[in-house]
């Protein structure tokens, strides 16, 4: 799954660089900032979503919500 996320991130970076080229904002600093910013943002976003889904499926969220539930019998 991580390989697919990395491939998607590379494709999004290529699309962003193509957009920069079309708009005429093609400079070394813009290219470096776009590559780093887009790649890291896509990886971070996908990773956090994957962790949220994994946490929900593994039952960790239910454990936390049941331990913090208000008890009326005390």
For the structure shown, list the relevant keywords.
single chain; 74 residues; mainly alpha; 3 helices
Q: Please, could you describe this protein's structure?
A:
- Helix 1 runs antiparallel to helix 2.
- The model has no long low-confidence stretch (mean pLDDT 82).
- It contains 3 helices and no strands.
- It is mainly alpha-helical and 74 residues long.
Mean pLDDT: 82
Can you summarize the main beta sheet? Answer: none
**Which value, in Å, is the CA radius of gyration?**
20 Å
Dominant shape? elongated
**Structural class computed from helices and strand pairing:** mainly alpha
Secondary structure: helix percent: over 70%
Give the terminus-to-terminus CA distance: 46 Å
The helix-strand sequence is: HHH
Domain count: the total is 1
Hey, roughly how much beta strand do the residues contain?
Answer: under 5%
Total number of strands: 0
């Amino acid at each position: 799954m991580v390989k697919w996320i990395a491939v998607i991130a590379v494709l999004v970076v290529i699309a962003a660089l193509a957009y920069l080229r079309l708009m005429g904002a093609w400079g070394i600093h813009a290219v470096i900032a776009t590559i780093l910013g887009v790649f890291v943002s896509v990886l971070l976003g996908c990773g956090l979503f994957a962790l949220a889904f994994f946490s929900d499926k593994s039952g960790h969220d239910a454990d936390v919500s049941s331990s913090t539930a208000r008890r009326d019998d005390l």
